[in-house]
Structure formats: structure tokens, C-alpha cells
Amino acid sequence: MNEQPTTAKPAKTLRKTPLGIRRRHVLVGAGAAAGGLAITRALGLHHLGDLPTIALPGQTQSPAPTGVDWVSPLDKPEAQVAHLLRRATFGATPSEYEQSVKDGFKKTVDRLIETPIAEPPPLAGADDATQEKPIRPQELISWWLDWMLRSPTPFGERMTFFWHGHFTSDFRKVNLQTPYIYWQNLTWRRMALGNFYGMLYQVTIDPGMLRYLDLGTSTGRAPNENYSRELMELFTMGVGTFTEDDVRNGAKALAGWREPLTQAMYDAQVKRAMEQGRQVPKNLKVDDVKTGVFEQQRAYVGGVKFLGLVKQWDTKGVLEQILAQDAVAPFIVTKILREFVTDQPSDAYVKRLADGFRKSRYDVKSLMRDVFMSPEFLAPASYRALVKSPTELMVHMARALETPALAKAIGVAGQGMGQLLFDPPEVGGWPSNASWISSNNVLERVNFAQVTLTGMPKIPPFKDAHVTHLDGVVSPATAQLLNSSPDDATRWLILLASPEFQLK
Amino acid sequence: MKELGGTNGLSRRDFLRNGLVFGVGAQALASGYAAVPDVFARAVLSAKSAQVQNDKVLVMIQLGGGNDGLQTVIPIGSSQYRDFRPQLSAAAAKAQPINKDIGLHENLKGLKKLYDEGKVAIVQGVGYPKPSFSHFDSIRVWETADPDRRQQDGWLGAAIAKNYDSLGHPLVGCACGTTSVPGMLRDLQATLTVVDDAKTFGFQGGQNVENVMGTLYKSTPGIYGALFDTAMTTARDTVAQLRTSAAKYTPKGNYSDKVNLVYSSKNQLAAALQLAAELIVTGTGVKVLHVTLGGFDTHYTELNRHDSLMNYLDAAISAFQDDLSGYGMADRVMIATWSEFGRRPKENASGGTDHGTASPVFLIGEGVKGGVYGETPNLAKLDQGGNLSYSVDFRAVYQEILTSHLAVDAKELLGQSFDRVPFVKTQA
User: Fold this and answer.
1) Is B12's CB within 8 Å of A229's CB?
2) Are A486 and A42 in contact (CB under 8 A)?
3) Tally of structural domains, chain B
4) How far apart are CA B157 and CA B164, in angstroms?
5) Which residues of B touch A175 (CB under 8 A)?
6) What is the predicted pLDDT for the residue at B24?
7) Which chain A residue lies closest to B234 (C-alpha atoms)?
8) Does the distance separating the beta carbons of B5 and A69 come in below 8 Å?
9) How many angstroms separate the most distant Cα atoms in chain A?
10) Is residue A359 predicted with pLDDT exceeding 70?
11) Residue B345 sits in a domain of what CATH number?
């Protein structure tokens, strides 16, 4: 790389922005700024703690809230592939990028979607978690992040992450004195690209979910409405598509499940009882399943009206009745498009994909293929139209730097950016896109890049990282700083901390 | 690596349509978001003629999840209460009586003391017509002050944008103890910052890195460009402000987060209120603060859970009041609590309660005219769904805060007038 300060090239064409500020103003501003740069001190490769003092221009040019947009490179095959990898995975390593560019867009979509999802290695001790030997939150979080960094099927991991934010539970309410939250992660991964009906059934009887939304203690006699409401409002149909009577009757129709007891939990309870000189409860027994257990005597007996139909319901019937509603397909499709394509999908786009989703009898894999193969996915308006969540951002950083040992650091840093895994802020899941942008979060994101680079014993050569990761499309400010950086460590900092890298 | 050539050319997208140009009726993205104006936008703002000159400060405490009003201001005189709540009504015998009908939860001891000193207003039965039982929907109603769900901006964000001039500092509004902008403060034109942890709020790598980042986040293209740039500008301003404040501040209240709470990641209330106090007493010019205590969605084993939440809330508020009094600023600051809804009078099988409707709001401060306002909820007259009817529209509470405490035009913000709930002392 040319290590001398250079001037941003002037643009070829001028176009008026809504504010009447022409591109020339922007680029002239940048050019003048770059001309004023001087490196006063050059340093070794990775001593970012002593970032060289770069003499920065004064605040002379601040040409307005930027009435300009990125130029989409999505007409170019390699940019299409990079765009896909940023969204369908947690960002590519240089070698994955090379391979995918060689394969091309279509073949890469096939590979991502069709490869069976790889299971992570088991988390030691998690199956036997008890009150005495709970799972440690940081171990659980690192275990998953480590698999995000290493998994040979990163799309499966990305989808697991999506469902984790959709079918939420958190380790505080569920708590880690059981294996439930750990099992939930394994279950969400196994079902990640399956049929949505099958998914809903597994979610409904998932032990972690039974506890998180209280279905595990609900009875027909005094039903708990929590799960019934969120099943319709957040998981399938959306607010305003059902009545309060549906919530109440749904709660009756779903009641009867309880959490399973593992051998380790059973043993621990027996041991506690003996130590305290209490009788072991007579009905205590080990359940040989990793799902909820249905007890007919706790269920509601009799017919109720649910979503327009009166009958004696069972859980599967309730889910089938929900899936028969028109609201489900557009609701799920909108959520997926806002996560993978654009924050504001058009009604026609949603309808088209929702029709396909319904026709496929709610097959998630074919929905995701439709999403990636839709013209909208590669439309200029979709370029950098989404903001990376903290997890996506940090895992992408680690993969860009080819440093897979960052799981622990990412887990810790996530909390300061509003994303502690397994602990979403509310039952509605994680924030998205613009909601991630705040003074606090921008600072924390920049700090993570700085601390990571400072802690690395050896920093990989920068080479063409701005092309691999940013398609070579950068703002005048980013270009100016990259051009004037004295070494690769500084270049990496600029790249990873840049607004461009926060986007996908 | 080839020499980089700027943005590879820049194209425009329709920013007006996306509502990302400051000052233009922002339609805002569907998700809702907030930003703070950058230096450019501030110049526009500072031209604002109608400035408000008063030294009052508002602190909103969100009780996230739907606080059970009947376990907070307990209807000790009601036999229906005991019938509806065989388990939970155990709280009645231990409550601290306010009058023959109601008592404060036993763990709200500090609040009771403040009440006896005439510094607490309890507004009973606060709600709105056709209530939503969805957390998110009802939160949005309270945040935007719009039961019709048409507004995107938060009522306090709009109040800041319309009435206060940032004058070059970022702290007109501040969300403490969180990582993102709370919906109540959301407004593209509002000047505000977000600080999760004041102790770690700074740039790793020091001034050098900070300066580089200031340059990196400038004139960023794209639909999120202005948001990123202003967030960075605000982060830098906030770092500078906190540095100055920290040097001037020693807490004069006993803030402790050592309370055993059952769950929720959002329970650093005492720490968040301590930061709020620091910003207030060190003269940063902060006007509106927002903090959150989560965990109120008590669908199960509510008794212990809600007891500890009350304890925690009480300890944090007491420390905050002591701190402000110690600095002689308690007359300037008003606390207002809010929660998306109350809970169902009848308890469920899990020893908890499901989503309900109206619940009480607390206003706390030396400027408050203490007492009970609104009507004690009538458990003998529930609606069809077994829920309480509201007696005070939540916007009437907002109106009193805006008009009598902050001295700004409430009708402009709320779109209509409400019967006054006179819990603010009249100025002499």
C-alpha cells in the first residue's frame, strides 16, 4: 500500500442531493482534508495502544447530513458473493471469500442452504446441570460464539442466531441450574431450516420455553396466559390479529405441559432431601426426554372457541389453527426480510414471498432460498441497508482477522453493546438495524476493534481487506484515513471501526 | 493495495422519503430509532427562538414488564382483593397504611417516609381507553403518548426537540444504564446521549484514537450515515462531559446494587440513578433522564419476586433523593414512574398475575404536592375481561409534568388538553 497521504480522486459526475449539496462539495471537502494530513510519528506493527498521532483537519468541512448514498457494487459478481456472506453468515475469512467468489453467487447459495447443519461439540457438564452444579453463563456464551467462529456451516449458525432472537428465552428466568437453555440452543439449530409447523411444536414443548413463558406451570383450571399471547403476538401472527378471548382460550387449550426432570436433577433433589432429613416426594421420577411432559389431568377439559373455531383442542390442533391464519406467512416473511434484506420491505415483496412460503407448506429452507435469489436481495437499495448486530460485528471482525480465539472476549463485550447472548432484553428479542446505533454502542464497537488489535501478538497483513470486506466502497473520510495510515495495524483499526464495517 | 479513490462515486437515495434529513418531518423507519443532531444540525437548532428557561429536571423510571399496581399501592380495605388473590394478598397485612383503603408495599419504606414529608404524589388508576395487553404495543402507547399508535417520536424526545437548545453539549436528554435509546426519548431532532456505564465510557487508546474516530465518522453516506456520525459526535462530547463531571462529584446517597433480584439484565437501577444524579448536580444542563428497572412481568411466583423489586426500587430512589438533597438540588428534580400496564386482579395458577390495565404512577420530589390523586381502583366493578377501569388518562399526568414542572407547551405535544391532575406545587 502506498504509505503516503494521498488525495481522494475527484468524482466523475455530479448529482444534486435533496439538500442542494453537490457531490463536488463533499469530495472537495475530503480532498482538502486529506491534503492536510501528516503523519508525525510512525510506529511498529501492532502497538495500537500508541496509535500514531495523525494531524487531523479542523472542523472546516461538515457538508451536511450526508445527502449521498453508497454506490452499489452489486452488479459485480464478487460483490454479490461478499454481500451474501455478510448477511447469510457471520462474515467470511479471506479463504472462504476466495472460494465463494470462485463458485459464484448461485453455487454459494446452494452450498450455504443445502449443507446439513453441523452440530457443535457438546458443552461439558451441561446435560447434568443442577442447582449445585449450574452452567456458568460465560461458558455457555463462549461455547456458542466459538461455534459461530468455527462452524463449517455458518449459514446454519446464522439461522440459529435468528431463531434465538425470534423464539426468545433468557438464562435469567430459565436459569442455568437445568440444561434447558443449553438444550434449547441445540434444538433451535436442529430445526433451523425445517418446517415452520414442526418448529412451532418443538418451541411450544421446549423445556426452556415452558419455563420462560410459563406454559410449564399453566393448568386448565387456572391457565397462565403468557405463552398463549406471545405465541400469537411475537412468534406467528403479530399484534392486532387476534382477540383477548383468543389469548384466554388459547391458554386453556395449551395447558397441561410440565418441565422434564433429568437424572442429575433427580439425584440432586434426592440428595438434598436426605441431607435435610426430608422425605423424597413420592411422585418424583426421572423423565427420559428432553422435551416437556404432557399431563392430561392438568389439561383443560371441554370445548373453547379459539381463532373462530369451537372444539376440544390439543396442542397440535392449536398450532394448526394458528398456521391456518392469513397473518402468519407475511409476519414471518417481514421479520426475515428485515433481518436479511432491507428494513423496509415493500408490501408486494412481502406478499410474493409469503405466498411462496404458504405454498411450500411453511418450508423455511425454500423461503430462505427465495429470499437470497430474489432480485430485491441484490438491488442497489439493499446495499448496506442493514446494521450488523454486535454479535455479527464482532464475529465478522474475528473472522476477518482470522483469530478464532476471541469467543470469550466477544461474549464479554456483547453486554456493553446491548447483546449478551442467551439474555435478550425482552421477550420481543433483540433490537434491529437503526436501534443498534447510539452514542454508547458506537463507542463500544470502536473500542472492541481497538482492544482486539492491541491484544493480538501478530496482525495479519492488510492486503486488500478493504476489497474483501468492504467491496472497495468507502467514504472519503475512510479512504483518506486508510491512505494516510502508517502501518497495517492502523489500517485494520480504521477498517474494523469504520461505519462501512458496521453495515451489511 | 491500490490507492483508494473516495467513495467510488456517490449516488443518492431518496433521503426525504426515508425521513433522515434533520428538520424534515421525519417519517422514521418502521422500527423507530433515534439520533442526535451533529454539529451541523445543532447550528440549525441553536437558531430556535423559543427557548425555555427553567432549571427543572425530570427523571423517568420505567418499571419494565407491567408493574402490579395492586401489590404496590395495596387495597388493604378490600375483601375482593383477598378473594382474587389467595396467595398474593398476604402483602396486605404488612402494608404501610396511607389511609383506610390503601397502603404502600411494606418494602417501600423510603417512599413512605417521603410521602409523610409531603413529597410523593400517588396517582391511582392511570391508563388509557381500549388498553392493549401487549407489552410492546402498550409500551409504545406510553412512549409516544398516542393511544392511536400514529406517532413515532417519543413524547419526551419531541419535548426536547421543540423546547431545548443543545448549545453545544449532548446532555439535554440522557438514558442512563442502557445501551440504546429508550422510546420515550426517541426523536431525530432531540439532543441526547446514552450511557450504559459511566466508568467505562471512554475511548480505548485515548485522545488519539478519539480524534481519528471523529474524522472517520464524518459525512458518512447512506441511510444510516447521519445516525452514525451524530452518535459518534455525541459519544465524544459525552466522554468530555463525563470527565468533567466525575471530577466534581462525590455521591451523598447510599447507592447499592447489592439486592438479590431473581432475574432481568436491566437491574442496575441504583447505578443508573447515581449517574443521573452526577449529571444533574454537576451542572451539565441535563433536563430529561430515563432509567429502567425490569422484571415486573410477574406471571409466576410473584410474591417474592415483586417484594424484592419493591425493595430495590425503594432503596435506589431513597439514595437518589438523599444525594440530591445533600447537594441542595432536590427542589429542581421530579421523578415519575411509569409502566406499560398493571396486572389482572385475579391471580393465576403459577402464583403470579397476567397482563392487566390501569395502575398507579408515583411522582416524587420537593416540587410535588403530596397526596393521593385519581380514584382507588374498584375491584367490585371489573370490566368484561376481569380488569380494572382507569380513572386518569396517562396523558393528564404527562400534561402536568410538561406544564407545571418543565413549563413547556403541553398541548403542542399531546395534541389535546386533559383535566388537570394538580400534583405539582404552584410556583410562588
Assistant:
1) no
2) yes
3) 1
4) 10
5) 263
6) 23
7) A439
8) no
9) 85
10) yes
11) 3.40.720
